[in-house]
Amino acid sequence: MRLLPLVLLFAALATPLVPSLAAHARHAPPTAAEIAWARATAKWDLLRRDARAMLPPRPPAPLGVTDIDFSDFFNPVVGDRGMELTAKLRALDGQKIRLVGFMVRQTLPTPGVLLLAPQPILVDEIEYGACDDLPPQVVRVFVPLPAGTPVPLSPGPLLLTGKLEIGQQPEPDGRNSFIRLCLDADTLTPLVAARPLASASPSIPQISSQP
Hints:
By secondary structure, the protein is of the alpha/beta class. It contains 5 helices and 8 strands, in the order αααβαββββαβββ. The chain starts with a helix and ends in a 28-residue tail after the last strand.
């Protein structure tokens, strides 16, 4: 009779693990893009609390483009009505802006769309759905690609330029976007440290798409 409580205890402890193990069992082996993403963002993960302090400086912004940062999105003091957009961000609605961030690595990315965050982040929609720990500053970026084309998984910081849109909007993946960026081109520009003009810049390898 003493074995019965032990069996029940073991079953209670093992039950929460079943959905997690089942979800991971459905995952395909990591692609070359996912491996490159993990290696390139490892150093940023070590500096997650202050990764942006280690970013290289941006080149001068093109004419008519305003540089903004994630710290420009919301007022630092949260009032009775929750987080509120800054006057600077509201004034830039509909205008060209430039932003540096990290592409969120997703298990179920939306074709033609990427999520841009202040830090390297991995989300698992298969196991957790839309219930993740993305920060409120995440920007939904629309890339002008052919219909159904996924955005290539790009490691490291990206320097993206496009038209800013603000306002709550439901999205096909079940999320609600509040800050959006519509890119003019279908290329993702990495933010890299400036090199001397005399040195040859190595070519950036093409990275395969997310699964």
